[in-house]
């Protein structure tokens, strides 16, 4: 596995570049937390009784990227990736057949689609779709801010999971 390169967001960027910079930084942080681990380690729920694993977090963030930047922002609903009616938390339920290669590729594909979709919107533009939480539209600024919050929260989980796996700490 390669080491993830992360860039600190610019200190004096405009609003959009700042939001995109922080979102990319947090995306990179999650990838960094997974660097150097085997598939087995990435599937490990290392903080019992929680079922949470690093691979599960990556799969979850692929679902979240898809939901906010496809379903909500542009009104395209290709359906979930890992979740089903029978297992609505399927993104977190990794089995021995789940691989880092697949999870990472899927996540990166959703990030690229998110970037492409967001590029067609201004920060104040309203979404064409809606979330499962409200029938109100969101502006792109809100979606960026929410995604930064979502990644930051889960990166905290990733810190603890990684430390329990091999003792690695740091940002």
CATH architecture: Up-down Bundle
Strand content: under 5%
Superfamily (CATH H level) name: dinb family like domain
What is Rg? 16 Å
Count of folded domains: 1
Name some characteristics of this structure.
171 residues; mainly alpha; Four Helix Bundle (Hemerythrin (Met), subunit A); 5 helices; 0% strand
Task: Describe it.
The chain has five helices and no strands. By secondary structure, it is mainly alpha-helical. 53% of the residues lie in helices and 0% in strands. The model has no long low-confidence stretch (mean pLDDT 95). It has a single domain, classed as dinb family like domain (Four Helix Bundle (Hemerythrin (Met), subunit A)).
Question: Can I get a quick summary?
Answer:
The chain contains 5 helices and no strands. By secondary structure, the protein is mainly α.
How would the blueprint of this fold be written?
Blueprint (H helix, E strand, L loop, with lengths): L14 H20 L4 H5 L10 H19 L27 H20 L20 H27 L5
Helix pairs in contact: 1-3, 1-5, 3-4, 3-5
